[in-house]
Design a protein that fits this description.
mainly beta
């Protein structure tokens, strides 16, 4: 397992941008695929984006394609989520997860989670 800490959330107007960061504790973070998920009250945790161990493969939910970009810097043990053209429906608590091996869109497949960072998009 690896410890993860998210940061970068906040309040932003519709059409604005935020960059979320997920800092990992392990120096072998390159062995872990990572993903971003979000959750609002009354809904299940929703897949946002995932990235492979090397960063060479990324995948996104249809709702964020073209607006969000996931990336990683294994030398810094960090995964990022760049969020552009934000919409009110993007409002949620955003979580990052990590697992040894291949990337996945299923949150239960991740073995490590951060505590989340809140994103609020006003209209």
């Amino acid at each position: 397992q690896v410890q993860l800490v998210e940061s970068g959330g906040g309040l932003v107007q519709a059409g604005g941008s935020l960059r979320l960061s997920c800092q990992a504790s392990r120096r072998t973070f390159r062995d872990y695929a990572a993903g971003w998920f979000r959750q609002v009250p009354g809904k299940e945790r929703e897949f946002v984006g995932a990235i492979s161990r090397s960063g060479g493969i990324t995948d996104y939910a249809d709702s964020v394609k073209g607006r969000f970009t996931i990336s990683r810097d294994n030398a810094k043990n960090t995964v990022y989520l760049q969020m552009n053209s934000l919409k009110p429906e993007d409002t949620a608590v955003y979580y990052c997860g990590a697992r040894v091996g291949a990337w996945t869109t299923v949150y239960r497949d991740f073995i490590s989670w951060g505590q989340g960072t809140r994103v609020t998009v006003s209209s």
